[in-house]
Every structure is written in structure tokens, then in C-alpha cells.
Structure to design on (83 residues):
């Protein structure tokens, strides 16, 4: 698992979550300012938008799909071997 904790992955996650925070703040400002909703609704919308955006962008840009497929294939291959 240490191979997935590289500097490149760290900076990818840092960039992703920076974008997610900006999206969350933007959603909050739009909900409160332009739409005229209550501050509580805008804050909740921002709090929901931030982790959802971070999770989706992290899944899209920071996940090594080839590594995930290789690990699943290795797990499926080694099922019949007893420890």
C-alpha cells in the first residue's frame, strides 16, 4: 500500500480538495446571495457539495485504475491458495 502514497498522489489530492473547497464556497455564496435562500440552507449545501466534489474528483483523477484492476485480479487468482 505504500506505493500509492507518493508525492504525486499527495499533490493530486491537495489540488482536488482545494478545488472542492472552492466549489463548496461557490455553492454557498450562490445559494445565499443569488438565490436568496437562508444562510443555513446555503451552509448545508456547501457542506454537502465539498465532500461530494472531492470524492468524485479524487475518484476520477487520483485513482490508479490499472492498479485497482491488478489487485482485484491478483485477489481472484489467489483465492484457492490456503494461507
Amino acid at each position: 500500500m505504500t506505493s500509492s502514497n507518493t508525492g504525486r498522489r499527495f499533490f493530486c489530492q491537495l489540488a482536488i480538495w482545494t478545488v472542492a473547497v472552492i466549489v463548496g464556497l461557490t455553492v454557498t455564496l450562490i445559494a445565499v446571495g443569488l438565490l436568496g435562500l437562508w444562510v443555513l440552507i446555503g451552509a448545508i449545501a456547501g457542506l454537502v457539495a465539498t465532500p461530494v466534489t472531492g470524492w468524485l474528483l479524487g475518484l476520477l483523477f487520483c485513482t490508479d485504475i490499472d492498479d485497482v484492476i491488478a489487485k482485484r485480479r491478483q485477489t481472484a487468482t489467489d483465492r484457492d491458495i490456503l494461507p
Notes: Residues 12-76 form one domain. The chain has one domain: 12-76. The CA atoms of residues 16 and 54 lie 6 Å apart. Helices lie at 7-34, 39-61, 65-77.
